[in-house]
Amino acid sequence: MDRYLASLIARLPAEPVTRFAPAPTGWLHLGHVLNAYYIWEIARAIDGRVLLRIEDHDRTRARPEFEAGILDDLDWLGFHPDIYTTDQFRAGRCDGRQSDRDAVYREALEILRARGLVYACDCSRASVASSLASGLNRTQNNALPGQVRPGHSAEPEEFHYPGHCRDRQLPLVDGYGWRVRLDSGDEIFDDGRLGEQRQDPSQQCGDVLLRDRHGNWTYQFAVTVDDWRQEIDLVIRGADLLASTGRQIRLARLLGRPRPPVFFHHTLIMKSPSQKLSKSDRDTGVRDLRARGWGAADVIEAAVKNG
Ligand SMILES: [Zn+2]
User: Which residues make Cβ contacts (< 8 Å) with residue 249, sequence separation at least 6?
Assistant: First the structure.
């Protein structure tokens, strides 16, 4: 990790802010621990600060008991955020929690809407998938670079929205998904570990969904707005999110952010060469390891050793 620090420092302001941003849709597992390790280690080395964000934008999957468990595990592991402490989250409403930031997302949406970039979409995932299957809208697979993990197969082929509703003038109301127009063009960025990357969001995913038809803000939109409004300078996350970076940079620019954050995508803990860990992998859950008598240092060591 040390070899990346000098170039990160050169690209960042003094006392840069990074963030740890788990989704409370499951318990913390070793994959999160590895991510937290990178975040706190890098922050310490570059005189940075860590913001804690609870990404509960998807209200159908997020659960308060998972948030409580994440906060407890972070305390136990010794990962203490500088901005939005675990106690601030426990105290109730908190600006680090996405479900408490609806007004912020609405305001951001208005920016895109005023620019004529937002439209309503009534396509179901199934209907887009069947048009995909016809072969007309198949996107090229956005493969992860081979150096991410030897033998790691790329993410499954991405869902590409072909723009069916772009010009249908459906009303922007609840019950429809809301999308943003993304014109073709490459986003080029210099990943802190992987070097120069080039992605064209219009080819990868098409017009990004901002809000789904159930009224949930999407991951792509909420995280882009938060990284901007919370003045995140450095995003440190697993390489499974590399493909999302170009669209987040594009969205941030459309919103008016002058400069995107610096991105650093680290290796993942793999269950097998092609399968990353997920929250359902109980054998690697922090709370299960705790229950088996592991200490915090053992858990962190296990994560780092396998990362
Ligand atoms: Zn549509």
Answer: 187, 189, 260
